[in-house]
Each structure stands twice: as structure tokens, then as C-alpha cells.
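Q: How would the C-alpha cells look for this protein?
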Amino acid sequence: MLHNSNYKLTKCHHLDQFIAKTPTKKKKKKRNPKIQQNAAQRDYKKNICRNIVRQAIKAMQNKNSMAYLRRQLDEDDLQTFQKYFLQNIEILSGFRVLKDNLVIFEDDSINVQQRKRIFKDYLVWFLTTQGTYSILSCEANNIKEYLRYKNEILLYYIQVPELWYSNKALWKQQQKQ
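A: Here is the predicted structure in C-alpha cell form.
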């Protein structure tokens, strides 16, 4: 009798004896290339969103951004505002988290509502005045895709974050219909 655990014993139906079978390897499931491509594209667009938002947050400390923010906040509030976003820069990893920092809910405190409103205005200002330069000066592999994302997705959905449900320019499809 075989005692090696790598072999399975099976009963042969036409004989009354056991036969040792060599183990069979389980076949790996092949993933659909379209599904893999869609997942990779989703991750890539999430990274584009994250990278652009990080550039905007880091730029809060430059002279032009500080001047823009000082028109909306006093010095203490400006420091608190910058500190909040610099501390949370790693958390802002995609459009869903960004959307949560833009949509104003009724139960948000007045300070949170003000922070969201100013952040929304700041992002629109940054993307229209400094975003293109920031993208062109970064080390992005696909600058054209970054610019398209900035112009077609970020600039639209930041202004109406309640409608933001994917990294696709759904508003363009609705206009064509």
C-alpha cells in the first residue's frame, strides 16, 4: 500500500483494487484581459486624481496659492486649513475621498462646511490657473491623459461633486444624447 500523501488512492470500478493516481495540478483560472485592463485603467485614473490633488495641496504653500487663500481666510484659519490638508494628503487617494471632502452635508459643522467650500473654490482656482503648469512639470508618463482628466473630470465634478460617481466624463455622454 502506498503511504505517500502526494498520491490519491482511487478505487477502480471494474477491479476490486485500489490504484494510485499521480496528483493533478489545479488549473489557474485565466482572467479576462478586458477585466484586467479595466481594473488597471481604473487604478491609473485613481492615481491621476491622487497625484493632481496632492500637487494642489502641496501648492497651498506657494506664494500665489497663499495670496488666493488669504482672500478667503484670516491667517489663523489659513494655517489650520493648510495643516488639515497636509496632514490628510495620504488619505486623499482617489475621487471618492475627494468627493467626501467637497460635498457639503446638512449635518456638517459650520467649520467643516466652510473648509469644504473653500477647498472646492481653491481646487477650481488651482486647476484653472496652475494645474496645467503643475502637470507639465511633473514626472507623469502620460501627460495628455493627466490634462484630459484635469479638464474633463476634475474641473467639472469638483464644481458639482454630488454628481461624481466614476472617473469617467459622464456629463459628456449626457450632452450627446
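The first strand starts at residue 8 and ends at 11.

The CA atoms of residues 33 and 39 lie 10 Å apart.

Upvote if useful.
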